[in-house]
Design brief:
heterodimer, A: Ubiquitin-like (UB roll), DNA polymerase, domain 1, 2 domains, five-stranded mixed β-sheet, 15% strand, B: alpha+beta, Uridine Diphospho-n-acetylenolpyruvylglucosamine Reductase, domain 2, Uridine Diphospho-n-acetylenolpyruvylglucosamine Reductase, domain 3, Enolase-like, domain 1, 3 domains, five-stranded antiparallel β-sheet, four-stranded antiparallel β-sheet
Chain lengths: 165, 288
């Protein structure tokens, strides 16, 4: 066992860990942040995505000890106090979350993309999120949500449908 | 709960984070057979989960500053430190003379994996469907290795001896990958994944010189247990690159290159893919 300290969403978290623990284990089990999902465990689906330092990583392929002394952000860390970030609002409006299991990862990834590139093309969106899988298949709604935030003139069928309900 | 069940936890090991090559070699000397070096970890961590590897010591080389450098010497070539990530390589360095490598890296896995993975890691894994080894072989790349007896180097083509089998002793480590610069070289990469993450077939082509001195390298990946050069296809391209020779090369590739039957694809399907990707890559090179 060794003690490590990771700044998670602005709070320093000190925990005793074993060297073979994953960052994913640290976040879910030691710090109890359950928005970070454990699904494929092998870096394919991306639902354990977090921001480590200045880059998104798949936390099932990172050792907890590697993050010692670093900053980690999960979806909670980009959510404003008492409200939602623009991309989160757009996800709600466009029905971009069906079962919601993958949503935290997609919010992180699309938020990251939009802050680096406020007007991403479809191709850029696909490339930036190519490491994520939505098992419900809401890719089109996610695209519309991103288009809304980026200010693209985009006819959103999902949003109209939602308005009628 | 993620603790306790096999395949999601890692075997027990002690983690080391050396700062210098010397320190790393010292750790390897001490723990050699029981140790694994870790760059980005994307391969090693997955292997450990599957218990294909159960090292009792993991040596993380990310903080070894000598391994984080890229040295580009115009006229000579580029030397890429073993801990440089694929993303760093793409974003910070000019790979213009090495387009086959740039294209191969750009299509590996996804941006999150590329931010962690390294070229040296790709080579040391020696997994048949990784895309960078064929590109490196097409560029005549060499692996630089440090060990207790000093330094040595090996061409990538002989460094990879077989699937998950490399020419590296337990007390040695890869320090960098060196790509020679060749004036006027053109190169390109193509692959087919069928929508999965794994390449079912890939091809790396580089052509140097002109006229009688024209020399082509054509390397196929993901179709057999190691990347394979096809001298038959190279002979055709040595004569010149035209729509007619491209068609002939694609035909010969699908006839002569040995393909494996496995869970990802049948040999017959791979042979078909070889024809398609050879046509595609050469077509792009003719247009350029």
């Amino acid at each position: 066992m060794r003690e490590i300290s990771i700044n998670v969403n602005g709070r320093t978290r000190k925990r005793q860990i074993k060297d073979n623990e994953l960052l994913l284990d640290f976040l879910r089990d030691r710090v109890e942040i359950r928005s970070v999902k454990a699904a494929c465990w092998r870096g394919e689906c991306g639902l354990c995505t977090v921001k480590l330092g200045d880059a998104l990583v798949k936390s099932c392929l990172v050792l907890a000890v590697e993050a010692d002394g670093k900053e980690v952000k999960t979806v909670e860390g980009i959510t404003p106090e008492g409200g939602l970030a623009p991309i989160q609002k757009a996800f709600v409006e466009h029905g971009a979350a069906q079962c919601g299991f993958c949503t935290p990862a997609w919010i992180l990834a699309t938020n990251e993309l939009l802050s680096a590139n406020p007007h991403p093309s479809d191709a850029e969106l696909v490339e930036a999120t190519s490491g994520l899988i939505c098992r419900c298949g809401t890719y089109n709604q996610i695209r519309e949500a991103v288009a809304e935030v980026s200010g693209a003139r985009h006819v959103s069928r999902a949003k109209e449908k939602f308005a009628q309900v | 709960m993620s603790f306790g069940s096999p395949y999601v936890t890692l075997p027990d090991f002690t983690y080391h984070k050396p700062k210098t090559i010397e320190e790393t070699l010292g750790l390897l000397k001490e723990h050699g057979d029981e140790a694994k070096l870790m760059g980005g970890g994307v391969g090693l961590i997955a292997f450990m989960k599957e218990r294909l590897m159960s090292p009792t010591h993991v040596i993380d080389v990310k903080d070894v500053s000598e391994l984080r450098q890229v040295k580009n010497t115009p006229g000579k070539g580029i030397k890429i430190g073993a801990a440089v990530t694929l993303t760093e390589l793409l974003e910070k360095y000019d790979l213009n003379g090495y387009s086959v490598l740039r294209e191969a890296i750009g299509r590996i896995a996804d941006p999150m994996i590329r931010r962690r993975a390294t070229l040296a890691g790709n080579l040391c894994e020696a997994i048949p469907w990784v895309d960078t080894p064929p590109a490196l072989i097409a560029l005549d790349a060499e692996v630089e290795i440090a060990g207790p007896e000093g330094e040595r180097s090996a061409p990538v083509s002989s460094f990879i001896r077989g699937p998950v089998d490399i020419d590296l002793a337990p007390n040695e480590m890869v320090t960098s990958v060196r790509l020679p610069e060749v004036k006027g070289r053109v190169s390109a990469f193509e692959k087919f994944t069928g929508g999965s993450e794994f390449s079912l077939a890939s091809v790396a082509v580089s052509i140097t010189g002109g006229g009688k001195r024209r020399e082509a390298r054509v390397v196929y990946g993901s179709v057999n247990s190691t990347p394979i050069r096809s001298s038959e296809v190279e002979d055709i391209l040595d004569q010149g690159l035209s729509p007619a020779s491209a068609r002939k090369a694609a035909e010969v590739a699908s006839q002569k290159v040995e393909c494996l039957d496995d869970v990802l694809a049948t040999a017959a399907y791979r042979k078909h893919l070889l024809r398609v990707i050879t046509m595609k890559v050469l077509g792009r090179m003719i247009e350029a």
